[in-house]
Amino acid sequence: MLKRSNLFAGGMAGLSMLATLLSTAGAAFAEVTIRVQSVLPTKADEIVMVKDFAANVAALTNGEIKIEVLPDGAIVSGRDILDAVDKGLVEAGFAWTHYWSGKHPAAMLFGSPVAGAGVGIDNIAFISWYMNGGGRELYDQLWDEMGLNIKGLMLQPVGPEALGWFKEPIESMEDFRQYRFRTPPGIPGQTYNDIGVASVAMSGGDILPALEKGVIDAAEWCCPKPDSVFGFQKVLKHYYLQGLHQVVVNADMYINKDVWNKLTDHQKKAMEVAADASLIRSLSYRIFENGKALKDLVENWGVILHDTPEDYFPLYMNAAKASLEKNSKENAFFKQVWDSQKAFAEIAVPFWAGAQTSNAKLGKAFVDGK
After folding, report:
1. What is residue 309's DSSP assignment?
2. Around Cβ 267, how many Cβ atoms within 10 Å?
3. By CB count within 10 A, which of 53, 131, 301, 369 is most buried?
4. Which residues face 151 on adjacent strands?
């Protein structure tokens, strides 16, 4: 017979093991709240898809991860959000990576590769480069190059963005140069300065007040739906859809790496899968929403659509290429990323541009035949 002490010891060992298992299970299923401060106000259209991403993460983790979306200024100002995430003042942020070009010029090549990186990459081709052409690995490296304690997730590709809104029609670059024009920060905005346009960088929520006060008299933000949410149609009526400054734009989520590293492997995978899904969900959302918004702008707000002056395209493209070449010579990581995009373009763009020509002609045939 077993001694009572042995039975007791065995029982206690079993209870200890069970307690350990329950503790481990409880830790694995503990709810994690990730606060994400955006650089945008709550009303911004981009927040719709951030919340869609958050819902997918919650579903994929059985509610283990709860993402709470906060508006611009909730904890820090928009311009400070990346540093706040790095320091752990907030768990995550949401913005466009080209906003941080002042920290590293290569940020532009991920957030807004000016003029399609100068090699014909559109928003869909960019996703192909990111997912299949080595872009994801370089994107992960970017944060180390910046010296930041951050894990980035690409969420929302947009493009091509509209040239913008004007008080009066512009028929040439000479007309364009008469306006103080809101542009994105970094190289896309600097390129406007390089071709003689008075470029003024400011956040999205500041644009309409600046237009109303006359601080600026023309502006770009994105596309028909996000533009209409900000209300530009209330003060400007001349709208130009074709622009080169942001043929590709990506809005991303930045997560404090200590927070990221504490997630389980399953939770990390769920976040990554939801982020990849957000790329196509955002594209599909924007096509229909922009179509509805453009129809409303023209039919109900008196907005007049124009074709962009032809002399804009070679001037902007040449200035963009010069800026890309300059930064490539000055920064090794910038060169590494741009070389990767150029190598991808050599293979992918001849096919994709030809296919897109068919798509464009298909659409034009429908529109012209209405």
Report:
1. P
2. 18
3. 53
4. 255
